[in-house]
Design goal:
about 350 residues; alpha/beta; Alpha-Beta Plaits; Molybdenum Cofactor Biosythetic Enzyme, Chain A; 2 domains; five-stranded antiparallel beta sheet; 11 helices
């Protein structure tokens, strides 16, 4: 029996609903912030500020209820996945100018899907709790302007509400230009692409990725899968351009012409085997045969050389794997005192 990603059933009708299968998605650090507000009379607002409402401290209970609501999101919304929440925080801001309370909910998880619904659920439950505790003194309440402000993590990276977000939040959003002020190069190993038999797509993908990350592109070359040619080009790029990061794409498979890891071992001053191990482990979320890939990394003078697979899809996946920490890693490497590669 062939392995099936999903069992097919001999039913006459297709299901009316379908929960999305996230089994092949890689877990990443997810975060979302949502906001909403509740408006009331001046008298009710003052009693919330002074803590004199009959049912007690409204804002304290709203915080607890909002956290509970966020954690119970999959019980309230049928198609939501059950996520291992790492953090939920509720923040209430009193607005004297219009007698309203703004409620912010932050949700975070290391998961395969986003936490925006959890953030929105937290806001809604917190606002309804304020309503419940305030309605005895002012039934004329209004909940509104509930929206998602930001979400981070996953393939989409950082999403910011196009209608704008508060300045204090914008200042805390991680920059996607993780290679600002750094130089990067691309070296593609492919017999056929180097001959012009087909267009090199992986290198083009990497060039676009690196530029969007803020890097200055110092070199981009396509060469055949030949040990001497690879070694000469690796050394030449690291000597001449001295990029902070050089991504070598291709030649990492188990085939007889896949020799990039062997060449890298000979050329580099020091191998960083842990990065290859990490990329293989994370790639198992995409394919069960990720262990066949021989991705690796090492230091060639002052340059961190990372060997990626050769397909555009794998290139994108591997970049997504290392992007969260590559900027910090390069910063730490600079402090280690590596000397520039000497010319032979």
């Amino acid at each position: 029996m062939a392995k099936a990603e999903q069992i097919e059933f001999p039913a006459a009708n297709d299901p009316h609903f379908k929960m999305i299968d996230v089994g092949r998605k890689r877990p990443t650090r997810r975060r979302a912030v949502a906001v909403g507000s509740i408006t009331m009379s001046a008298a009710a607002f003052e009693r919330i500020k002074n803590g004199t409402l009959p049912k007690g401290d409204v804002l304290a209970l709203a915080e607890a209820a909002g956290m509970m609501g966020a954690k119970k999101t999959p019980e309230l919304i049928p198609m939501c996945h059950t996520l291992p929440m790492d953090q939920v925080t509720i923040h209430c801001a009193l607005n004297d100018d219009d007698y309203s309370v703004s409620v912010y909910c932050q949700a975070a998880a290391y998961a395969k899907t986003g936490v925006e619904m959890e953030a929105l659920a937290g806001v809604n439950i917190a606002l309804l709790t304020i309503w419940d505790l305030t309605k005895g003194v002012d039934p004329h309440l209004c909940i509104g302007d509930i929206k998602l402000l930001i979400k981070t993590g996953g393939k989409s990276g950082v999403w910011i509400n196009p209608d704008g977000i508060p300045d204090w939040l914008a200042e805390q959003i991680p920059s996607e230009r993780i290679l600002d002020g750094l130089k990067a190069g691309v070296l593609v190993m492919s017999d056929r692409a180097s001959k012009g038999d087909y267009e090199d797509k992986s290198g083009a993908v990497l060039v676009d990725i690196l530029k969007r990350a803020g890097a200055e592109l110092s070199s981009y070359e396509v060469i055949p899968d030949d040990a001497k040619t690879i070694a000469e080009n690796l050394r030449s790029i690291c000597q001449t351009h001295q990029p902070d990061l050089l991504i070598a794409s291709g030649g990492t498979g188990p085939g007889p012409r896949d020799i990039t890891p062997e060449v890298l071992t000979k050329v580099c001053d020091r191998m960083l085997d842990g990065l290859g191990d990490y990329m293989r482990a994370e790639s198992l979320h995409f394919t069960d045969t990720a262990w066949l890939s021989r991705m690796s990394a090492g230091m060639c003078g002052t340059t961190l050389v990372v060997a990626f697979p050769g397909s555009p899809k794998a290139v994108k996946e591997c970049w997504d794997i290392i992007a969260p920490f590559i900027g910090d890693a390069l910063s730490k490497i600079k402090k280690q005192g590596f000397a520039p590669l000497e010319k032979e």
